[in-house]
Amino acid sequence: MVEAYVAPVVITAIWAFIGIICPFFARGPNRGVTQCCIMLTAVTCWLFWLCCYLTQMNPLIGPKLSMNEIMIMAREWGNEIKDTMDVVA
Amino acid sequence: MGDMFRSEQMALCQMFIQPEAAYTSVSELGETGCVQFRDLNCTVNVFQRKFVTEVRRCDELERKIRYIETEIKKDGIALPDIQDDIPRAPNPREIIDLEAHLEKTETEMIELAQNEVNMKSNYLELTELRKVLENTQGFFSDQEVLNLDSSNRGGGDEAVTQHRGRLGFVAGVINRERVFGFERMLWRISRGNVFLKRSDLDDPLNDPATGHPIYKTVFVAFFQGEQLKNRIKKVCTGFHASLYPCPSSHNEREEMVKNVRTRLEDLKLVLSQTEDHRSRVLATVSKNLPSWSIMVKKMKAIYHTLNLFNMDVTKKCLIGECWVPTKDLHVVQKALSDGSAAVGSTIPSFLNVIDTNEQPPTFNRTNKFTRGFQNLIDAYGIASYRECNPALYTCITFPFLFAVMFGDLGHGLILLLFGAWMVLSENKLSRIKNGGEIWNIFFGGRYIILLMGLFSCYTGIIYNDIFSKSMNLFGSNWVNNYNTSTVLTNPHLQMSPNTSAKGVYPLGLDPIWQLADNKIIFLNSFKMKLSIIIGVLHMIFGVSMSVFNFVHFKRYSSILLEFVPQILFLMLLFGYMCFMMFFKWFKYNGFTSNQPETPGCAPSVLIMFINMMLFKNTAPLNGCKEFMFESQPDVQKLFVVVGLICVPWMLLGKPLYIKMTRSKNVSHVKHNGELTGNMELAEGETPLPTGSTGTESAGGAHGHDDEPMSEIYIHQAIHTIEYVLSTISHTASYLRLWALSLAHAQLSEVLWNMVLSMGLKMPPYTGAIGLFIIFGAWCLFTLAILVMMEGLSAFLHTLRLHWVEFMSKFYEGLGYAFQPFSFKAIIDGEEEE
């Protein structure tokens, strides 16, 4: 499994590339408009993703599931229901 | 920066054109579409201007063209569409040709129409006569013997008939509606001594003037006596009945019928030949008519424009004043020289840029992509001259905010496909002339819809919502830790973050939340915080835009007196609230052993904010701390105090500064020994009035110069109160991003659970048909309610967020639009009508 920090770093790097490097490649009569649009897109989309990521990073509540759903999770997502409980301090 | 950062620089120019070259020069200028002419003859009546006769000529030509067009439409001939090869304005020789052509065609059409009417009425009479002759066959059979006698005595000699006591008659045709009135009238005037026999005609006859089919009735009125005959004839005239001479003898009637028949045939032939001739004439004309129409429109526009020019005193040249974007000056020069060259004039026309204090029109050069967004901003108000143009940022922030409210991958795809279809086939679709107002709106906003679709797909991926279902691309990070017995004995179980969360879903919301019963509680917290963060950032961006305006209009004092307190107030209070949100996201987690940092102890950001503002303290729960970090109470106190200081700073800073600089200026001028009344000053400038500084300050400056101090204090008080209150109300207003997003997700879920899942749960084979129908219903509701209605709603709310929450922080919007003299605009505008 990959480390936990890989995903956010990769996504941030992608948006940073789009927002900082790509504007230099803009050409044509509408150069200024294109640069502005690319930068704004990168900032807004990255911010949106970031808020979603940070919300789930340290969740304060967990999902409340019905018995049916837990059993389907066990079957479909490989999340076997064990006989002993994992007690985590 | 790019072209759209602020509106273009405009120059006021004077144009000197030779009268010979005037027509061609203005024609060239109209083709370029770069200049806006000012009316130099405001005081002159429209009918007394120089080129009135030419305009009248054009009106005549237009009238003739309209007449020919109506005739062509009547015949149903299609006019060809010229899109690419738009002709230029005609030169004098072409004008004469055009006039001759149109004159000839018009007279020919009028003649043909007249002839046709005459022939048709002839035709009608003959047809009616024939009907009369045929239908009265039956009436006379019994009267045969008697009438034969009367005709032998000189064919209907009334006196003889009367002496003999025989019946006379009149025959004719009348409209079916009038028959009963006619009969009653005859009865009355004759005191019952008239005998009317009538028979209805089955097929209607065409009225020659209007072409409408009318039902008629043939009648024969039998009477006795001369006086009665006259009276009957008068009644017939009154009821518009046509009388026909009907011979009483059978043989004469037969002959007449044959005669009439032959004449009818001949007339039919002539009529059809006339029709053919007319169609041929119209067909030949219709090929050239659209291009002639455009040429005449251009001619008329040129003469209207020439009427705005002033004739120089020495009658040597025409002088015109116009606004030209500075970047287009060379285009205008070239157009003028082309115009002179076309006429072969040796004396060139020239352009002279003049200085002015007036506010120039606002011109934003747009391409097909940015035009839609510029229209959205202009609908609120045209930007003042050379102030920052919000449309540049609206290109992205508008679709983004829309997408935050609309976030669903499925619906986003529908929007994206619709927008992409319109954009990819825009050449073909732009030729549709009469699609209707709604189609024009959608087509004009095709790039907006395309971008809205794209961003909605992205937010749909992040919200993990496609038609109310989630995608599990990376594997859920919530695992179940309860053992078999716990699971089987409890109908519902809540997972705890410290035992069940095993990482963060990398792109978007974890798919397990779609299954959870407490999904909304979690999403509310996420979406509310997201909305406030986006809102505060958007507003900070808006306030920062005012700096660019202050720098450009050289009102540097306003940066310190207006911008700094505004941004401090916003950032120290609401920016701090966003900081608290981020801090809370990092600090409280389920894996820590430190009691105050467990999720149970996480304080509400809103309560903390309110306590900060009111300098209150709430007691924390057992084992928890009240504040998130050590120095929080001191930092908060400092921020609130500085924020409170900003209010009188905003309230009094600018008026006091104006007061100081005014007294300095007045004393300075008195020192110079002269008093100038109306000095055009903006603050911070030297007291010497010059035209050039006036140009800059006129656009966008408030011109506080003559206002008494009390007005300035009141204005500033209003601005301050408005700003302070708006920081709170607009921040809360951004919560509509949360509200609409929630509503959209819930509607989508309801539609799935109540409609489509019913179809999916049906038994096989028969259920297939049921599913087919239910899927159709689901599609209809999705498109009508979720895409159309929710889309329009989110569009409107986004527009409001831009106009009010974003633009009120820096936008003035007191300009007027640049309306250049452009043939393209005139022809497109006329086509829309």
TrEMBL record, chain A:
It comes from the Eukaryota. GO terms for cellular component: endomembrane system; plasma membrane proton-transporting V-type ATPase complex; proton-transporting V-type ATPase, V0 domain. PANTHER family: V-TYPE PROTON ATPASE SUBUNIT (PTHR12263:SF0), VACUOLAR ATP SYNTHASE SUBUNIT H (PTHR12263). InterPro entries: ATPase_V0-cplx_e1/e2_su, ATPase_V0-cplx_e1/e2_su_met. It is a multi-pass membrane protein. Keywords: Hydrogen ion transport, Ion transport, Membrane, Transmembrane, Transmembrane helix, Transport. This is V-type proton ATPase subunit. It is found in: Endomembrane system; Membrane. V-ATPase is a heteromultimeric enzyme made up of two complexes: the ATP-hydrolytic V1 complex and the proton translocation V0 complex. GO terms for molecular function: proton-transporting ATPase activity, rotational mechanism. Belongs to the V-ATPase e1/e2 subunit family. It comes from Drosophila hydei. The gene is LOC111605739. The chain crosses the membrane at residues 6-26, 38-56. Subunit of the V0 complex of vacuolar(H+)-ATPase (V-ATPase), a multisubunit enzyme composed of a peripheral complex (V1) that hydrolyzes ATP and a membrane integral complex (V0) that translocates protons. V-ATPase is responsible for acidifying and maintaining the pH of intracellular compartments and in some cell types, is targeted to the plasma membrane, where it is responsible for acidifying the extracellular environment.
From TrEMBL, chain B:
GO terms for biological process: vacuolar acidification. Keywords: Coiled coil, Hydrogen ion transport, Ion transport, Membrane, Transmembrane, Transmembrane helix, Transport. The chain crosses the membrane at residues 400-424, 444-463, 530-551, 563-586, 635-652, 768-789. The keyword Membrane applies. It is found in: Membrane. Essential component of the vacuolar proton pump (V-ATPase), a multimeric enzyme that catalyzes the translocation of protons across the membranes. Required for assembly and activity of the V-ATPase. Belongs to the V-ATPase 116 kDa subunit family. This is V-type proton ATPase subunit a. It comes from Drosophila hydei. The gene is LOC111592942.
